[in-house]
Design goal:
Layout (H helix, E strand, L loop, with lengths): L1 H23 L1 H15 L2 H18 L6 H19 L1 H7 L1 H9 L1 H20 L3 H18 L17 H22 L5 H24 L1 H7 L4 H5 L1 H25 L10 H13 L6 H8 L2 H13 L7
Helix pairs in contact: 3-4, 3-9, 3-16, 4-7, 4-8, 5-6, 5-11, 7-8, 8-9, 9-10, 10-13, 10-15, 13-14, 14-15, 14-16
Amino acid sequence: MVRLSIANGDELRALRRWLDHLRGTRPVAAAERTYALCVQCSLLLAVIGASKVAVVSLLLSIPINAAAGVAFLVTLAVYNHNKLTDLEEDAVNDPEGAALRGSRKRLFAALSVGSYVLALCLSALGGPVAFSLTLFPGVLGVLYSSRWLPGPGPDRLKDVLLVGTGAVAFAWAVPLALLPLAFAGDAVGLGALVVLAFFFVRTVLAVELFNVRDVEGDRCRGIATLPVVLGVDPTRVVLVALNACSLALLVAAVFLGALAPVALAAAPAVGFSLVLVGWLDADRSADRLCLASYLEAPLMAACLVLASGSVPPVA
């Protein structure tokens, strides 16, 4: 048994040396740099935004349409703009990312503006309602991150406790839930309102999860978030309650007939979120768990597809 333990230790050290060597090779190093740039450019978030529209289409039983493309482009635009306005606090929360964005401001600005222009052009094909819904998160995003509030207190919506989180959640929940309907030409019913409320709660949860990761930088900058004001452990309790609320919304909607029973297939993704919240620790795990939380929307979409037994049509 002792010999086996020593052998396993030697093999583990050899494996680590091989992995370190592999990381130093040009293809792997280039892949890591490309991945880092994709994360910093919010490409991953843009894919998540498109997958959330797919979830909405599955919940409301409508074909996947151009709303997914609009969501991809708007997410790309808004988050890149937000990252440029947050360079100061990100110097504490994410120094490497802040340095990268600070050295390529023109690239991120061009990506933000170009993506939004393309999104507006695409949304115009869906009519005035789709165009207005596409414009909505951009306008609210500028109000959220710009310094315009009067008085001696916080000068940005982002810095006001709960108001900033609510603004972000509302800015995303409205177009996510309603854009697919606008492109499909369908009316807004009770099911769509339930989906809007569901994504509002899920977005509040996601924002506060990331606020746990950013708690030190936010505290240094005087930004009032739940983790800063309440602490990490009480915030974890709030996140558990938000998960329970979002699941209760789906159950109630199915019970009332607002959504088809297949909507309950989204429950495993909520369970996945509960696991992440249970592991949450600002000192050790927050950054990794925030990355893992990106899997929630694709997991939800996959569960809904499996439960329905078919891939939704593309309009």
